[in-house]
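Much of our argument rests on the idea that a fold can be written as discrete symbols. In the encoding step, the backbone of a single protein was reduced to a row of integers, each denoting a local shape. We regard such an encoding as a compact summary of how the chain folds. The record that follows shows the chain in one-letter code together with its fold in token form:
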Amino acid sequence: MDRTHFFESSSIIAQMLRPYELFANIIVNDKEVVEWFTEIASQLLNRTSLLVCGKPHRLVELEFYYYNEAHPDPFAHRHPLQLTWGRWYFHRQRDNYRGGSFKGLDLTFGDNTAFGGILIRSLEAADGTLIDGPSLCVDHLLAQAEVSQVGELDQAIDARVAWDSNSPLVLEETTIEQRQIFDSARVGLSLKRVHSYPNMPQYLLRPYRYLTEPQRIRKGKLYLVLALHLQQVSQEVIHQLTGCSRKTIERYILDFETGCQEKDLVSYFGRDLKPKDLCLLHGILK
């Protein structure tokens, strides 16, 4: 599909990717990237409904992954489908769909040379039920579509763009309750492969995660607590916003402050990161 038809065919996608025209090949600083992602996130989280086999759902948590020469995010999958825009991409390991707890679904926003994927981390059903986590979101979509395998749903989508009303998954511009959007570092990343990708520390804690349910979304609380702390939000307000216990918040912040006095990253290379490690790294990389 050429870009002219792309923009004429869907106001939701056109609005969502409008900054793409400004930044795709001329990104000059991190601020512009964040502004671009924030604009897209605002559209998706506060002005968009996801119809799943005709049933409305709300997007409540997203993560952004984008790789090009000017923004070589080593955590982007860089699957060929992520060179497209406005398509659904179910996470794959080579040619096979990921299974178990590794399932995930992206909305692509590439440009034939840059790879772009917006990971759906959490959804809210029409009755208010929260589906928390990328793999559980895919499980929910499969259940709603009454299929058992990711490949079956992907085949039903049949490479349609995300706004195609004939698809089982349809993004639709709508008027919904406006909610405050919070941002933080992305969840679950590590420095395991830093020897292959030396720029991993540069991208590890970038604020490319956006959410509107800070209390109900359980996964990744640590990242949000520290993001709010870095924004100079008081511990009491952080407690009220996130529902984290005061004791937990205090521990996270103490470890963060300890990290502010450290400089060495090597001990974090090549291994899983525990909560204390993540707090220390927030301090080291702040």
